[in-house]
Structures are given as C-alpha cells and as structure tokens.
Amino acid sequence: MRARVSILLCLLLLFFGVTDSYALTPAQKRAKAKEMQIRKRQAAKRKAEKKRAAKAKAAKKKRVKEGKLILYVYSSDLRTGEALPATHIMVQDVNARPGKKPKINKPTDNKRARVSKTLPAGRYYATAAKIGYFSSDTLFFDHRFDEDSIRLSLYPEMRIVFTVTDSLTSRPVVANIVVRNDAGRKIMQTTSDSLHSHLSVLLDDRVTFYTIDATAIDYFPFHDTIIPSLAFSGVVMQPKEIKSFVLHNIYFATGKTRILDSSEPALNELYRFLTQRPNQRIRIVGHTDNIGSDRSNQTLSEGRCREVKQEMINRGILPERIEIEGRGERDPILPNTTDENRQLNRRVEIVLL
What is 244-352's CATH superfamily? Predict the structure, then answer.
C-alpha cells in the first residue's frame, strides 16, 4: 500500500512540474535563461578573481622572498593635486656610479599617472619633469617593502613675453638682459636683437618679485621690478644723447589736420616719452611734401602740429611743455620726385628743448 502511495505522489509531482514548465511564456523562458547565464558569468568572474588574487599573493610572496620589490611612482600638480600623465620619471640608486643607466627612465601612463618597476630594496632618489612645469625637487627615499609608492609633485610654470624697445622710436634695441629673483639669484641672462625685440622669461608665481636690468650702447641703464601677478610693460630704453626724432606712424586725413585713429600707437609713444621725462620740453615740427601752394602747406603743417599738441594736452601733459612750428615744404629729407619720397617728407618731428 505504501509503495502505491509513493508511486502516486511521484506521478503527481511529475505532472505538476511538467505543466508548470509548459505554462511559462516564451518571454519568461528567455528571461529565465538570461538569468542563468548572468549567474554563470558571475560565478566564473568570482572564480577568476579568486584565482588572480591567489596568483598575485603567490607572486608577492616570491618577490619578497627574492628581495625584488615593486615601486610605484606617481606624479601630480602641486597646486591642484591633479594627476599628471606623460610626466617623465627618473629613479636612480643613490650609490650608482656617474653615467649609469637609471633604474626608471620613462613617462607616467595616462590612466593612473604612474610608473611601476620591480627594484631591489635600497636607497634611491627620484625626479620628475614635464613641459609647462618646473622640475620636481629631488626626492630621496628608502625602498624597503613590496608595493612601495612615492609621489612627485610639479609646480606649473609662468612665462611672460616682453619687448626691448627705444623710448623714442619704439624700435627694437640690442641690449643685455639680466633677470634675478627676490633672493638675487640670476635666473636668465640673454641679449635682445635689433629685428625681434620679443623675449620671454620663465617665472615662478611663488616668488614675490623679480628684478630686470638692461644695458645697451648709447642708452641709459634700465632697471625695473617684475611682480608675477601683475602685467609687465616691457623694457623701454632711454637714449643718452638725442636732439630730435621723427614720430613714426602718425597719419592725417588727406589734405587736412584731422588725426586718423590709426595714429593712436604713435600718440601713445609720444605721451609715454613725455611722462617718463616729466621735465622735458619739446617742439613739435610739422613738414609736408610739395603738392599744393607754399601757403596752404605752411597752414597745413601748423594745423597738424596743433592737433598733436592738443592730443598730448588731452592726456594730461602741461601746455607750456610743448611748442609748435610749421615748416611746410621747406625742409624735405628727400627730393619730392616720387610718391615714396613725398610720403617720407610728410612727417612730424619732435625736437628736444
């Protein structure tokens, strides 16, 4: 009797199990199959991770036993703390002979901004360099444990570009330039040339100030202070002995006294000259070409001088420091035979009094 009951129960369980499976919809079957696949993958992943961990543990045990320990070197921005990929790292044994190949000599990776190397236990030093940053300080350290890590920090550079020009003509000047930091240490010495007056100097904005000195033949020495957080106007050299100079690039409306807007740099140049020499008096002398009558050219030259004087007064220069004189067409520097010559004859000259 018991055997019959057991057989009956088994048949009932089998029947209801089969009907359950047949009762699942296709979507439910796919979901169930997908769930089984996920479970299998997760189990395989756990198994692989466990295997990797065991392998890494065994490798670490072997390294420690053999005295070959991993060193990680990271690089970062000293100001922001951000990681710096492509930073060149150099690590060397403290007791290495001169010229020996460094233990590490390569850039950090892009993922973690680090380099790694298996090195014997010992004392080492490390430095880091990257374009746009000052080189890191040399770090001395003891490598004693596996998976040691050190961090090298670099400070961003600050570069300023300035010009070396004549105070009268704004032309480039050949000058010897020396820049020193606030401790008096020379950080740059160079020579400007007569074609390209633009120079650049590398500054550290952690330094309070820098001094800049310039010397040139026939010019007074130049000395100024550079504060990294403030704009630097450049090196303006004052000629030692001058009697007059031509104010270049000043333009007037054709046949009129009105100064064109394109003359603003020339006017600023004259204003800067007068402010740098507060006791200097000048005479503005106007010249024309020979087109037109003598009388009209005389009137035109005088009117243009008055306009230049008024521009200086508007900027704050005292009127009594400026005289004017119109010379018309009387003093050409070249024969008025070509358009180029006539253009050179139309000029404004500044005479020092």
Answer: OmpA-like domain (3.30.1330.60)
